[in-house]
Specification:
The structure is a single chain. By secondary structure, this protein is an alpha+beta fold. It folds into 2 domains: 32 residues; 107 residues, SoxY domain (Immunoglobulin-like, Sandwich), CATH 2.60.40. 24% of the residues lie in helices and 38% in strands. Strands 1, 3, 5, 6, 8 and 9 form a 6-stranded mixed beta sheet that branches. The protein starts with a helix and ends in a 5-residue tail after the last strand.
Length: 144
């Protein structure tokens, strides 16, 4: 295989993959989807704030490369998925966790990158609809 045919194969593969992926995935991949648009895309524009969904992120993170975040949805009934949105990141949807059983403990703990001070929003998809919780985190060193 020569160089030209390899380049043609790579370009053809990229075009084939891009035509298979939904537009919203491509927009988020390319950084075109803003946080509020992502929230509306996930929830269909219908979500409520609830104290039963607990989002814990530090008020001040010394290192933006590993900011600890926990989402506790154990007080909610019928949780199917949890999403985390980091508003100021290029790709705002930081993670998604799906629960296969209603008996599962709906708690997630992880570390995310944050490039600058930002709002963080957790979304829980329940059998009754979407529930959100938000917090602010200030970052002293950039992570993204």
């Amino acid at each position: 295989m020569n160089r030209r045919s390899a380049i043609k194969a790579l370009i053809g593969g990229a075009i084939a993959l891009s035509s298979m992926a939904p537009f919203s995935v491509l927009a988020n991949f390319m950084g075109k989807l803003k946080a509020d648009d992502a929230i509306n895309k996930i929830t269909g524009g219908k979500h409520t704030t609830s104290a039963k969904l607990k989002l814990k992120s530090p008020k001040l993170a010394e290192n933006g490369t590993q900011v600890p975040v926990t989402v506790d949805a154990t007080a909610l009934i019928g949780v199917q998925s949890i999403f985390l949105i980091v508003h100021e990141n290029i790709k705002p949807v930081a993670m998604r966790v799906d629960f296969e059983s209603s008996d599962a403990i709906t708690f997630a703990s992880f570390r995310v990158k944050m490039g600058k001070p930002t709002k963080v929003t957790a979304i829980a998809q329940t059998s009754a609809g979407f529930v959100t919780a938000s917090s602010q985190t200030k970052v002293t060193k950039g992570g993204c």
